[in-house]
Structure formats: structure tokens, C-alpha cells
Design a protein that fits this description.
The protein is elongated. Helix 1 runs antiparallel to helix 5, helix 1 crosses helix 6 and helix 4 runs antiparallel to helix 5. About 70% of the residues lie in helices and about 0% in strands. It is mainly alpha-helical and about 130 residues long. The structure holds methyl (2R)-3-(furan-2-yl)-2-(pyridin-4-yl)propanoate. Methyl (2R)-3-(furan-2-yl)-2-(pyridin-4-yl)propanoate binds next to helix 4.
């Protein structure tokens, strides 16, 4: 119904702003685009569901998310993939795991800081009904 569409439009505007802020952060450059499987030929043997911030943004525009929880599930997927593909004690693996954890914390912090909890409750109710 119409109010529901207004709520979901507001959610999309809100999620685009958060996604853009994360993608602007130089620290997160390695998460902004899909991992290049030419460069990393075994990536898809290990990571079954790749995810990145550009893909997240296109999912917003495709109305894939009807509450912030769904969006954060894809942020968690980016993080999980980075932890799984880069598990070693090496400095570079530790570095990317640290950045992945920072991406998650920043995303959750933006949502908490800027999202009114009854707005998310309203989105959850819409999700339940669909
Ligand atoms: C999310 O990004 C990744 O998991 C790739 C894996 C990767 C390994 C070699 C090339 O790319 C990555 C990119 C940049 N810096 C570290 C790791």
C-alpha cells in the first residue's frame, strides 16, 4: 500500500547514503568492487557467494532490501568472505581481516546512529506481511 511504499523509499534513500559513505572511505577500497577472479583464480572455489559495496548499491536500486537487517546481512557476507579467503597469520591477511571488521563496525554504527528503531520495526512489519 502507499504508506508502505513511502517507508521503503525512505529506507532506500537511507541505505544509499550509508553505502556511499562506506564506499568513499579509502580504507575500504578492497570491498568496493567484486574481487577480480582474473587476478585471484581460486577465489570462487573458496567463496561461494561473493559480495561487494557496488553490488550492495545495485541491490538497493533493485528494491532487494525491505529492512536494514537485510542490508546488514549482505555487509556481514562481505566481511565473512574476507575472513574466509584471507585466514592466514600473514601481515596482509591480518590487515584485510582488520579492515573487514572495521567495515562491519562502521556499517552497524551508521545504521544505529541514523536509524530510528520504530522505523526499522515498521520495515520489519512490511517484510513479515510480504
Ligand atoms: C575482499 O578482497 C579480498 O579478499 C582480496 C583477495 C585477494 C588476494 C589477492 C588479491 O585479492 C583482497 C584484495 C585486496 N587486499 C587483500 C585481499
Amino acid at each position: 500500500i502507499c504508506q508502505e511504499e513511502n517507508t521503503l523509499r525512505e529506507l532506500r534513500i537511507f541505505l544509499r547514503d550509508i553505502c556511499a559513505k562506506l564506499a568513499r572511505n579509502k580504507q575500504f577500497f578492497m570491498f568496493t568492487k567484486p574481487v577480480d577472479v582474473e587476478e585471484v583464480p581460486d577465489y570462487l572455489d573458496i567463496i561461494k557467494e561473493p559480495m561487494d559495496l557496488e553490488t550492495l548499491m545495485s541491490k538497493i536500486d533493485k528494491h532487494s532490501y525491505i529492512c536494514a537487517r537485510d542490508f546488514l546481512d549482505d555487509i556481514d557476507l562481505i566481511v565473512r568472505n574476507a575472513l574466509e579467503y584471507n585466514p592466514d597469520k600473514s601481515a596482509e591477511d591480518k590487515h584485510i581481516r582488520h579492515r573487514a571488521c572495521s567495515l562491519r563496525d562502521k556499517a552497524y554504527a551508521f545504521i544505529k546512529a541514523e536509524m530510528d528503531s520504530d522505523f526499522e520495526d515498521t520495515c520489519r512489519d512490511i517484510r513479515e506481511k510480504r
